């Protein structure tokens, strides 16, 4: 069976935000076994899975991405929507727009130290739409 739902994550400031609990709360009942595929419907935000215990990981990831893709570079042509826009698109390409998580025993089968992150690359963003597809 395949089930699909679309929901909006609450707006967040720029940065890396653990959203595992918010996503889990928005999902229908999960099958005993299967897969959850999450797709973010935006070009300036991403989803990823990473360490969920130490908040330093969140700030370190933000620092790393900002160094990899700095703002206000003279070679950017797409600049009408602000200094953070083109870098946000590039960061989204690096991080990706989807994650897949196994479902075991009716629960997300993430590792002990893993959580799902919303990577918000814009200074001011609205809520982000996520398509959740459950296969199982």
UniProtKB/TrEMBL annotation:
**Pfam name, any one:** YjbQ
Q: Which Gene3D superfamilies does the entry mention?
A: YjbQ-like (2.60.120.460)
Which protein family is named in the record? Belongs to the UPF0047 family.
- Output the NCBIfam families linked to this UniProt entry: TIGR00149_YjbQ (TIGR00149)
Protein name per its UniProtKB record = Uncharacterized conserved protein
